[in-house]
Amino acid sequence: MATDDFDIATTGHSGPRIGFLTAYVPEELFHAAGFTPVFIFPAPGDQGYARAHLPSFVCWVVTSALNQALSGQLDHLAGIAIAKTCDATQGLADVWPQCVPHIPLFHFGMPLRLESPAARIYLTTELKSLRQRLEALIGYAITDDDLRASLSHYDQHRLWMHRLYAEAAHLSPSDLYRWVQAANRMAKPTHSARVQAFLVRRESAGGGPAADAPRIILVGPVLGDAVLFEALAEAGACVVGDMFDLGEDYLAADTNAHQPLDEESDPWDALAARLLARLPTPTKYHPRRSRADHLLKRVAERAAEGVIFARQKFCEPHGFDYAALSRTLKQAHIPYLLIELEQASQAGQLRTRIEAFVELLAERRQQSDEV
Amino acid sequence: MVTAGVDVGAITAKAAIIRFHHSRNSTLTNDTPDVRPQLLATAVIQAGYNRSQAARQVLDHALAQAGVNREEVVRLVGTGYGRVQVPGADRTVTEITCHARGAYYLCPDVHTVIDIGGQDSKGISVGKGGKVLDFVMNDKCAAGTGRFLEVMAHALEVDLTDFGTMALSAPGRAKISSTCTVFAESEVVTHVAKGVPKDEIIAGIHEAIAARVTTMVSRIAIREAVVLTGGVARNAGIAQMLEEKLGHPLIVPMYAQLAGAIGAALIAGETAWR
In what order do the strands lie in the sheet with B132-137? Predict the structure, then answer.
């Protein structure tokens, strides 16, 4: 692992950055406008600035974003993009113009019922409205070719991330986490090049978890806490996939299912289709895309032995999602563990839970081998 | 073959020395004296600030009591909150896995373990051979743990060793509604100010802990026999009120506080065969 693989400062990209929160922000459009979209990961430390504006039951992700903005840590951003997902992010978008007027807000509407024929029409209209607001900021037109080129970069990146995830079982969970986190914060062409170089290096390097490391899939909203991945690495487990809102289902695309963008097709429509086609997050509804079925399929395909739900405290959508997914896992006799992450997560207890879960999986495997 | 387990918890450090007479195919629970692993000695000391030193000392105490040299111990497993601070440990295993194995050794019919320690409480569903099937653990809040009892005993100026018996002999129970240690302490202060008898406040504190632990443990399937382990198992008041709330008889083995260390020593024996 090169030390600067994850260093945004060494990307050579000097263009403006747009911060974003939540899945469903059309990153490709911001990239087409010359920006690098950067996810605002929650930061540790006192959240005093934000606590003056937000109630205590708002999750750490949203609270920390506002706190970073109020404390001047986001002043380098040209703007912030928030897509309508949960109540907390909607509330943040509501207070942002009053609290942080010097960082322009790009609020983006996303339909709830993704299967509705009207959803695509609405979404395309919303994308074009966002395009106008962005053009007003940058002072020039975003052409179809600009968006097409951006979509192509993102497509390429999704293919590289697919290859990276295919290697997940051979990577330390901490390293996988750093690659995924960097993917949410780095210009995609740069990240693609680094992943590509890494995969070439890896072919000769080896290393990573033991071949018989218990195989785990992670589910949750965002990758909020490095302690989780360090604990998994220390416990000797490997992560073989995830269902984070901004994780595998967002960042990686199956090579076989991948369809390159047709040069004649409407890129705005293609972007809307991409947003609608992804695995729904718990805040959206699609009658034919069940998250439970998706999880069961992923567990089977990756030969995963257990699932860890890494939920942010006060994240209601993932709370409801956990109830449904855990019931499905229970019926399928697949072990699972729920951990709640928050700003002051206790590393000791977190480690004990994760280690005990990995021990449980190892003993389960041993028992099954004996039978 | 002699093995040792050292359990370094938040408040105490425990050690167990076990002699294995058997081959790897023998079971932990076989009652034949020459086959069942033999618990040679145990020791408990305060963990204090220096966990490594406490681990070393408690192991030395147990070894001396067993009449065994350190060199005779073929495997040592560290467990508990301070498991990584056990000098010379061949392996670390979580207290969840160790309590399950230890409880199975102490009570072969066990299917559910409730472990209440100094700063954690856990519910463990146990399967064949003392293997963990599922578990729950309290979050970072200290309510429902030994620390909660310590704070309350201090607030009421009562010796912790008398706490459980005072709770059981009280004619009534004051209502402690808060599940947070800090807020519960302020409720206790309110009861004191109102002149509520001390033993009734203590009974209320015990009931509050039992209720909290029951709520947590109910997230796993509770199947009998239910075994109480951990340092708080020594408190008869907690055991009785927990039994009431759970609606299941509760078994408190003689070595309840040492279940983690015993489990660690047993796992040390299992790994020695591999």
Answer: B132-137, B121-126, B112-116, B226-229, B250-251
SS3 B250: strand
Please give the ipTM for the structure prediction.
0.87
Given B120, B129, B135, which is nearest A349 (Cβ)?
Answer: B120
Helix-, strand-, coil-residue percentages of chain B, each rounded to 5 = 45, 20, 35
CA dist., res. A47 & res. B154, Å (int): 33
pTM: 0.89
Question: What one-letter code names the amino acid at A108?
Answer: F
Query: How do residues A30-69 score in pLDDT, each as one tens digit?
Result: 999 999 999 999 888 888 899 889 988 899 899 999 999 9
Best CA proximity match to B104, nearest among B270, B227, B218: B227
Contact by Cβ (8 Å): A342, A228:
no
Q: Which residue has the tokens 């729904």?
A: A280
**Cβ contact, residue pair A355, B81, below 8 Å:** no
For A165, the token pair is 């995830």
Quick one: closest CA in A to B127, which residue? Answer: A364
Residues 6+ apart with CB under 8 A from A159: A253, A255, A258
Q: How high is the pLDDT of residue A238?
A: 95
Tokens standing for residue B7: 């359990």
* pLDDT at residue B202 greater than cutoff 70: yes
Are the beta carbons of B187 and B178 closer than 8 angstroms?
yes
pLDDT in tens, B223-239: 999 999 998 888 889 99
CA-nearest residue of chain B to A313? B139
